[in-house]
Amino acid sequence: MAITGEQTRIWEEIDRAESYLVCGMFDEAASLASSILKRLLANCKLSESSESFEDDRGDMLESAGMVLVQSMKHSQRTSEILKELKLLFGSLTAMPVQVFLSGVCFEMSESPSTVQGFLEEFLNGWKYVDDRYYPLSGAEAIVSDTEGSSLMCSIRVDEYLAVVELYVITLLARTVKNTNLAIEWVEKAMLPIEKRQELLRRLQSMDSTVTSSSKKSTSPELSNEFNSDYSQDQKPYIGHLRDVENNTSKEEILKFSRQRVPFFWWFPAIKLKLGSTQLVIPTGKMLVASLLLLLYYLTRKKQALVKRFLAKKALSMKKGLLDLWQLAFSYQVNPLAAVQALPTTASGNR
């Protein structure tokens, strides 16, 4: 029961630290998360811990570590995150991978140069054994369960590869622009064969794109230098350039004259003379007016046709209703049929 009570108290403190973080009390959240981590790491060597507490310890460490990382980020202490984590856990390989990745991403956003050393130290501190990664200090003691082996945890391959991709692709290839160093590291690292080949393909494609872009960036400089030299050489021949400009303008005029022009644009306006007054009507306005008159005539004509069609339909419907009415009331019904007795044959059959 004591272990369960301790476990519950730690989770309550983690919830309180998260509440401090949400409320903007970053210093209180950081100090509480740091004290939780110290207590958990100090109790790692206790043999009295139950299996449930051991299974829960990893989640507790990760939750408290994430609160600490985010609190330091909001407290403008981003450059101290990895140093503080290493001081608390004792080594980079002892901390949860998600906590380490979060700290690296936060620090990389401000100072990428300080992150490279921490990433190399973390990646070089593991050994690939039986589809898992173990710390180098505990890789030889995997078979025998020695005292204090609870600190010698292992991580999955995908967790290790997430750190590898952050280091190789994001930092070296994209941020530092050192693809050759990334390729050399991947070739020497202890990685699964499929993942190593995939990383090498990605790095080689990135290297090819970088070289092609560098060639494209140098070619405009050469072309600009050539154009500047050419312009300096062509300064005395201004008259010749004017002749060329005149020729191009003539060619444009001839090309424009060859284009098809509508007939009504040949006469831009129609002049009407009525006595001493002269009336000028543009052909464009005249065309629009004629189109409006034609549209009005068509609508009036269609309106008359629609009226005649609707009148015919109304007459036919009226005639059909009258015929139905007459047919319904022309049939004679005997009002005494309901009270008349049934025939004797029908009663005999019953």
Which stretches of 5+ consecutive residues score pLDDT under 50?
139-152, 229-246, 259-267
Cα separation of the termini: 89 Å
Order of helices and strands: HHHHHHEEHHHHEEHH
Which strand order spans the largest sheet, edge to edge or round the barrel?
1-2
Q: What composes the largest sheet?
A: 2 strands, antiparallel
Question: So what's the overall shape?
Answer: elongated
How much strand content do the residues show?
Answer: 5-15%
Number of helices: 12
- Number of separate strands: 4
- Give the class from helix and strand content and strand pairing: mainly alpha
How much helical structure, as a percent, in the residues?
A: 55-70%
| Whole-angstrom Rg | 46 Å
Mean pLDDT: 75
Describe this structure in words.
The protein is mainly alpha-helical and 350 residues long. Helix content is 68%, strand content 6%. It contains 12 helices and 4 strands. Strands 1-2 form a two-stranded antiparallel ribbon. A two-stranded antiparallel sheet has the order 3-4. Helix 7 packs parallel to helix 9. The longest helix is centred in the C-terminal third of the chain and has 48 residues. The two termini are 89 Å apart.
Quick gist of this model?
A two-stranded antiparallel sheet has the order 1-2. It is mainly alpha-helical and 350 residues long. The protein contains 12 helices and 4 strands; from the N terminus they run ααααααββααααββαα.
